[in-house]
Fold this sequence. Notes:
By secondary structure, this protein is an alpha+beta fold. It contains 23 helices and 27 strands.
Amino acid sequence: xxxxxxxxxxxxxxxxxxxxxxxxxxxxxxxxxxxxxxxxxxxxxxxxxxxxxxxxxxxxxxxxxxxxxxxxxxxxxxxxxxxxxxxxxxxxxxxxxxxxxxxxxxxxxxxxxxxxxxxxxxxxxxxxxxxxxxxxxxxxxxxxxxxxxxxxxxxxxxxxxxxxxxxxxxxxxxxxxxxxxxxxxxxxxxxxxxxxxxxxxxxxxxxxxxxxxxxxxxxxxxxxxxxxxxxxxxxxxxxxxxxxxxxxxxxxxxxxxxxxxxxxxxxxxxxxxxxxxxxxxxxxxxxxxxxxxxxxxxxxxxxxxxxxxxxxxxxxxxxxxxxxxxxxxxxxxxxxxxxxxxxxxxxxxxxxxxxxxxxxxxxxxxxxxxxxxxxxxxxxxxxxxxxxxxxxxxxxxxxxxxxxxxxxxxxxxxxxxxxxxxxxxxxxxxxxxxxxxxxxxxxxxxxxxxxxxxxxxxxxxxxxxxxxxxxxxxxxxxxxxxxxxxxxxxxxxxxxxxxxxxxxxxxxxxxxxxxxxxxxxxxxxxxxxxxxxxxxxxxxxxxxxxxxxxxxxxxxxxxxxxxxxxxxxxxxxxxxxxxxxxxxxxxxxxxxxxxxxxxxxxxxxxxxxxxxxxxxxxxxxxxxxxxxxxxxxxxxxxxxxxxxxxxxxxxxxxxxxxxxxxxxxxxxxxxxxxxxxxxxxxxxxxxxxxxxxxxxxxxxxxxxxxxxxxxxxxxxxxxxxxxxxxxxxxxxxxxxxxxxxxxxxxxxxxxxxxxxxxxxxxxxxxxxxxxxxxxxxxxxxxxxxxxxxxxxxxxxxxxxxxxxxxxxx
Length: 809
């Protein structure tokens, strides 16, 4: 029977070449799409899963209550990692680190070479908790010495030419003007590509404690705490215990801590009001759903064309049943036919994926590889069986259900249920296609809106780079003297999308208002083109540091005429707020307002207009600028338009003058801002391909159905032509039924697409309005493409000479 089934399948494929090619093309395209998405999804799901302690490895998260709700972040006090193993028996090991990207690029000097690298500070149990395999050194003591540095293999090779025998060698590092000597105590394998954090070396956290002269207080939440719990620990119970413990230490009911599995942070990194609210997992679910839909659309073609061609196979079925074939044998035959078709399509899909993978990697910025192992082979087998069974199930059940007595008498009739099912599948196909088109249009418009919206600052022709050393005024003055430079200044950290920008607070009228704090040099606000709405910017023409405000006995300030509580000789600093901060404080006349503090007071000297330093997903937060003209980690330069090449050349020459043997690495601010929408841009681009693919596959099926319809109505068309019907009339007749199906698909798809796009846009605090023509245009485009597809076959059928079609009559 197996040989017989193969022979029957071969003959049917040979006899119905058009149907065979349509099914093969549709399934191949669908499977290729599914394979690419599966590679991407599998890579995303693998992030941070390589740690040996993955199931017991947690990060301590913080919930902070404020007037705006509960804010969740990764910031904890450094002392937490010291006390937890001592006072919590559930904790096996704990470690504290500086946040990822907290420090700018370090400059390392050793063995006569100077290189740059990304580093972080970590306490001694870091390598016990995380599986960054040490090829030299012991995980128990590589960070015990406060002057220790542990290098990655690639970083060791850059400095010493080899990663072998480097323990005990001396390295000097320089970052933000901090210069220290350290000893190499270990070498670890390079961080895997599927890691959410990437760094070139680890420094001892004890060294940072000395630099910053850290105490043992609980007030400063700037660091990340990781721990491994002992086997059998109930994490929910531990979280309750941890919250009570923190409150006993801080006497603060506004914040609480909880454990989050470390490997879940990459996928579930979004929180709303203290509750987990998605993250990258949303894109994994989206693309997985799209892959399923594309596969279903491909399978629908096979179902429709197989059932449409039923009339040509009824005699075969009738004869087999008459001579004793059971229904389950026939079901197996048609399922086997579908699975064989899927296997052929899979072979083509694998070839297509191999050819497209380099472009797909460039698009997704990954290094995906397609290789065959047991896991991959089992996955391919599963996809093949699922697709084959999905494609062949309905035709197998439908065809095997014919009664032999009826079909052998030539009384085969397409049932109404079969016709409705086939039409329903076509409607389903095109509904998905229309939804894809609407989503593509809305995503494109939102990204275009984000890229062209007035951000409140000028990101064009602005370049920034790490200083590597303490910034001197002479350095900045020489930069400003370059003819192609419009202006320049310095700041601490980065401006755009930096989640580690200092999170400070302003205490005003008994309320604590969380703010983002930027430390800037003179001229930064002007360099970035941020508009001053009230008051003034920082200026050397005014005293901006440690002003002495002498108060009279009546408590009235002798400066600015502001009334503040009685005191004398209070040190003050000056700040500039944005409109959001002024609104949060409820100030009507903010300039000159004095904010009291325990050690010093703060005077508001200006208000700038709101600007977007984060993506449009986020509402504009309260911001304060404080003057810090002594040091700067980052130099920000505004280049004159059209003189970028000359400016960058001059900047590099000057940079090497102050930082010899250190590479000049710079970035453009607009590129940083565009990077905030990397995920959305990926969704946009892939959605275009998916929408096009779904339309293509759907139209292939429509093309096949139209060809079959024209074929079975060939004699009817000939009679109509003999009786005087025009070509246009016949085309309209053949197209009418398909037009109704597309119109129904439009009516179903447009409300669904509205709900989907509205839900997606709700993730943006600032978004485009949903306009009617997005939906109307998608429907009309789909209708036009579908009618063109049907019309090709309709016109071809209408032009046939009736003498040929009626010859047998």
